[in-house]
Amino acid sequence: MRTAPRPWPLAVLALISSLFASHALAGPIEKTLRRAEGNVPTPIFRPRPSPQDTQPPTITETPPPPATIEPTKASACLTQLSQIALAAPASGPKEEDSKCRIPDPVSVKATLGRFPVEFSRELTLDCPFALAFARFVRDTVQPLARHHLDQPLASIGTGPGYTCRRRNNAPSGKLSEHAFGNAIDMVTFRPANGAVLNVTSPSQMQQDQARFFSALRTAACGSFTTVLGPGSNPAHATHLHLDLGRSKDRKNPYRICE
Predict the structure, then answer these.
(1) pLDDT of 57-107, one tens digit each?
(2) Is 98 a member of any domain?
(3) Is 229 a member of any domain?
(4) Which helix (H) or strand (E) is 212 found in, with range?
């Protein structure tokens, strides 16, 4: 005969009941905690700024572009001169006589091209005159030398160009065009063979040299307003003087060609 099961003690039943209750509540509580945690922002940790980071940033201003400078007549003249001669800007004269001045000083050493001509010294001249002289040597003197001397001209011996003095080196009177860098004195011509042609009376030159010098002197009267050489006066017995002085401020300047 089977016996009936013994009833659970009340204490055991109470314990089992509490366990079931806690398990039933665990799910909702855990879900609630998870939702709450999802609403809390994750803290972001940043390093404490150093003293250098707290300084205001340095602002570097970009300088404005340089102003555009319009080319002057002086620079335009030197640009033209540099195409046919070895030339560069030069400093103006520093003389006690303030009247001795060069408006646009340049230095010239030689002409350029297929048949260049060197000058015996570096010439200091006013740029417009330097341009006229370089063209004359390149386009007139050199072709005449090749025609009459049968060889190109290698160099020309000259005076300095600029000299602060009066006409004909006189102690008084008007300033020479040399005082403005507006004149040149040609003293010798040296062809490529090394021979030297000294400027003097054509009667004292060899025949081919005389023809060359006479043609050069005549052509100079078409390029310059003053041409003085042997026979004009004793001061020009041994050189050929060229200048453009009489062309200043004159629409139709008269010329001296002697």
Answers:
(1) 444 444 444 433 344 555 799 999 999 999 999 987 776 567 888 999 999
(2) yes
(3) yes
(4) helix 207-223
